Amino acid sequence: MSPVELAEADTLAATPVAPVGPVAPGSGRRRAANPAGTVPGPATAPAPPRAPAVPVPGQGAGPGRRRARGRGAPERPPGTHWRRIVPQALVVAFLAGGTTAFVAADKAVRLTVDGVPRNLHTFADDIGELLAAEGLGIGPHDLVAPAAGEPLEDGEEVVLRYGRPLRLTLDGQQRQVWTTARTVEGALRQFGIRAEGAYLSAPRTAPVPRAGMALGVRTERSVTFMADGRERTIRTNAATVQEALDQAGITLHGQDTTSVPPTDFPRDGQTVTVLRITGTREVREERIPFETEKVKDPELFAGTEVVERVGRPGARRVTYSLRTVNGVRQKPRPIADEVVREPVAQLVRVGTRSLPSSVAGADGLNWAALAQCESGGRPSATDASGTYGGLYQFDVRTWQGLGGSGRPQDASGTEQTYRAKKLYVQRGASPWPHCGRRLTS
Fold first, then answer.
1. Res. 60: pLDDT tops 80
2. How confident is the model at residue 441 (pLDDT cuts 50, 70, 90)?
3. Edge to edge, what strands does the sheet with 143-145 contain?
4. CA distance 415 to 411
5. Longest CA pairwise span in the chain (Å)
6. Dist CA 363 CA 383 (whole Å)
């Protein structure tokens, strides 16, 4: 029997039965005894039929237990049957409550993964637990709405969009981006790229795989060309300036070019000038200067330099491009260079020998006055014929006879004065017939 049936049976078994008197013939009931001299009272209402006693586990018939309460039997203590009913009622309530809690924890949700919806039941407490239970991992580039940490409610709609890597080349600039769109058109909308008039390397309806894809986009741009005195503006998605030129119907001839390289990417709002070029070539021979090399010579007095080898310039042949750009002559531009003759370096010997401080018999004379008279005090002075030179106007033969090297005008003033003193000791003031008297002034 069920717990409810057991409780009802115990209740009926515990109900007391009222005593009855003798039953009159034909009445079907006994009448209570009426002692003599008493007035019979009203008839007693018939008692309801008594249900048979149902044995309860642990309470079977045995010593000390009555099967039925007869006349004169002692009554049970009040509340005995409630002590039996309450535990059984608690069992029933517990079972009913567990079923209610089980039903309340179940949630009906709608899960859409990459646009594919499905309805399901779950006991998950939050969005992340739901996705984990469904075996759906999420990464940093995936989109989950509501967020993974949000609590999950009954009737919730959950959307999961997986991120897809996109190698996007937009107007010549390449970058790596992520999109949750499933088509090329959706990705363009997500990045705010205007697709009208643009060149796309893949159709708009092409799917973007989970593994990603490469997508080239060239948006429509406005480019202005200045050519032949006219201005032309076009809308283009060309990849190069040359391609845009072709779309504008502009042709380059010969040396013609543009203000930006024809292979460059044309930018929106850019102005490109077409350069009409005509030109010729010109060959010129130019001088290559020689270098001077100096070597020390201990035989020469300090301050004296003697040219051992005269330098010789070289020559080069240079080809120039002479151009006229849009009617304006440009600066010649060298385009070729050929050396015709190598230069020869000039070799100069530089004296390092110390000069004597004086010459006996000539130190007390006024050599500055003589130099001023002969050359104006200039060590490099030469006469009009080129025969005489230096402070004291030596000729080369006399100079070298006194121990000098090279030309007198190339020697230092100190050496020239020293050689002049030596000449004076040998010949007096006669070498300077006009200015010699200044020595004693």
1. no
2. confident
3. 116-122, 107-113, 157-161, 143-145
4. 6
5. 213
6. 27
pLDDT tens per residue across span 124-165? 999 999 999 999 989 999 999 999 889 999 999 999 999 999
Q: Which domains does the chain have, with CATH numbers?
A: 107-161 (3.10.20.90), 164-218 (3.10.20.90), 221-275 (3.10.20.90), 281-349 (2.20.230.10), 355-440 (1.10.530.10)
CA distance 288 to 362: 48
**Average pLDDT, rounded, for the chain:** 81
Assigned token pair, 224: 């202005």
Strand, coil or helix: 198:
coil
- Whether 228 contacts 205, CB under 8 Å: no
Q: Are residues 262 and 243 in contact, defined by beta-carbon separation less than 8 angstroms?
A: no
* Cβ neighbour number for residue 163 with a 10 Å cutoff: 18
The residue whose two tokens read 């059984």 is 88
On the 0-12 / 13-18 / 19+ scale of CB atoms within 10 A, 261 is exposed
